[in-house]
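Field: sequence (string)
Field: structure_tokens (string)

Example rows 1 and 2, in order.
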Amino acid sequence: YSFNCYEYQYTPSPFRLMVATTIRALFAITVTLLCRRNERGHVVVTCFQPSRSSYDSSSLPPSRRKHSPQRTMVLSAEWQEKLQDFFGVGDDNKGKSKNAGVEKNNTNPKSDVVVGVVTRLAARQFDADSSKPSSRSYTTRKAELSSEAHVTKEGVQGDYNHYRTVALKSTKDRAVSLLTNDVMVALRSEYPNYNFEDGDLGENISVDNVSFDFFRVGEHYKFVTVVADEKEETTSSSVVVLEITEKMDPCANLCKLSYINDESLQPKERISRCKEFLNFLDRYDGYRGWYAKVIQEGIIPKGAKVVRLDD
């Protein structure tokens, strides 16, 4: 901790050394608590951000805004290198991380890999009278597609989302929306008097056999379909790859569903029902669903398998 500068030796005082050591230790503890490596070896940081509700909370003071925990984002390569240098993590440690993943795969049979199944595909075409949320006939519900969905960088063919198209200028980060069936099961259990139907939440793809936290921001997922040709005794596969970009936040437009906005109820009761419904969907990150962008285009049929891609 001492050095010579123009033949003058400088040694920090014990107090300055203590302050510098304390700051470094606090930073190390903070990074350790917030950062982790995901299954692809990327450094992921957990942060906090305000969650949307049925009203615009941006006008409220910070102390009154509701926050949802554990919003994650993948750090850039530059910051990953900085963190690795800070903690003295080099190539040797990277090798250990990959080896640990290999060992885990060796100890677990392939049958233990979590695989989701596509059970429903949906889209809602543009309609001048009902596609705008301001319309009295507007609904978040999307009609089921017959057997398969054609997925491009722009999203599911034939699907229209007014907010994404107008406010977000057709961003490709929200090309596709996904929902796991465990959420619908929970809704039907929590609200047995509501006539829930698949597609009411506006999802393009419904996935079964996995829980809502199967999807993670920054991760890639492949939708695989194996087609067998009995005549030629050959098989071929179709693969679509999506990247999860963000969790979906409960939107007040959901309250236009008929069992929420029941005209037989007083306005005060409808508002209360709406808030309760949105709060239920906001209980966990991803409970409302997930947005994804398309990495590899193709066709997703019902019954397609969903697998998380690993390095």
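Row 2 begins here:
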Amino acid sequence: TTRGSGSVRRPDSKMLLRAVSSAIASSSSVAWRRSARTSSRVASFIGASSRRDRASMMTSAAVNHPGQVKVAHILVEPKDAGLLDELGEQIAGGAATFADVASEHSKCPSGKQGGVLGWISRGQTVGEFEQAAFTTEVGATAKATTTFGVHLISVLDARAEAPTVVDVTIQDLQEVLEGDLDSVNLIDVREPNEWDGARIEAFTLRPLSTMQQWTPTAMDDFDVSKPTYVICAAGVRSMRAASVLLDLGFDGGVYNVQGGMYAYSGPNLVTGA
């Protein structure tokens, strides 16, 4: 991510989701939360000139989502705030989709996936972004100005409670490996040198250390509606990665393999590069 002098910082998804930050670089999460001190405001909904949008504005004050919201956003520099208004009107009028506009205009890497950030909880984003996201009705949009720029936020869904990662044993994993492998996602988050030393057939390598690079395409690379099993050496890194996958929207159930590769000695084990 480039932060040139005098330009607006362009956050990546790890800055917008604390879960990704903690998995990759906790210092980025701290910087993201501290940036909430900067004065900014939550603006009115895009396209407020229409009767429908005015109605949304009048009811939005009563909205206060508990739990989590699933959001997408389009980020532009402050000088392009007027353009964002125009783009919002195009989306509201059906002339363009949110995903297409995000892909073309958003300065956030999430634009590659239609602007989708996934599920967020309170405290995971800067205050202005959080205020807009948690007080906007599902299916509606809102604007927020932060130190990163101007955001058009789309609230895709809401849920009262966040799902949790489920711990499974090596024995549970072996039963999965003996079943229909096409019905599950199997992700190994160790490093390539660990993978070369020993691995389980059918797992896909996605190192935790490079999560920033592979999470933008994870929703396309894996079927998020399937159960997802995550493994590492001992079960620590895999838990962190599993939590991120939940926030991204892996809603088929995410499972952390306790004990990891240290505990596995089954017939699916492959050793050597």
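free_text_note (row 2): The longest helix spans residues 236-248.
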